[in-house]
């Protein structure tokens, strides 16, 4: 379920923009323009933390391999357990290409 506090025309436009990207190069171009390097790396780190949590890794292993703080790991874990299931959808599609309706090509 979408958080009603997030749903607005600007966020809808951002989601449409992401959905319009057709390949890996376009994704890199878009995220390089819209995010700072730090923001982009933080998003990538949180996704990896979610993947590792789902795979059963410990906090210590995740800290060591990703450099994420325990606060970040806790927040991602809370999202996995009680969030909108966005991580679960994406992680399923990344591990099972058949679950994805389209694949971003390089």
TrEMBL record:
Q: Which GO terms describe its molecular function?
A: DNA-binding transcription factor activity; sequence-specific DNA binding
InterPro entries for this protein: Trp_repress, Trp_repressor/repl_initiator, TrpR-like_sf, YecD_YerC
Identify the domain of life: Bacteria
Looking up SUPFAM superfamilies in the UniProt record yields: TrpR-like (SSF48295)
One family from Pfam that matches here is Trp_repressor
Q: Which PANTHER family match?
A: LMO1763 PROTEIN (PTHR40080), TRPR-LIKE PROTEIN YERC_YECD (PTHR40080:SF1)
The molecule here is called TrpR-like protein YerC/YecD
């Amino acid at each position: 379920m979408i958080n009603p506090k997030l749903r607005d025309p600007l966020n809808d436009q951002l989601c449409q923009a992401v959905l319009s990207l057709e390949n890996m190069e376009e994704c890199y171009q878009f995220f390089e323009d819209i995010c700072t390097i730090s923001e982009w790396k933080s998003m990538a780190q949180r996704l990896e933390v979610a993947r590792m949590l789902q795979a059963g890794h410990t906090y210590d292993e995740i800290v060591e391999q990703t450099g994420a703080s325990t606060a970040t790991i806790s927040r991602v874990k809370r999202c996995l357990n009680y969030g909108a299931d966005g991580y679960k959808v994406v992680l399923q599609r990344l591990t099972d290409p058949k679950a994805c309706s389209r694949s971003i090509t390089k």
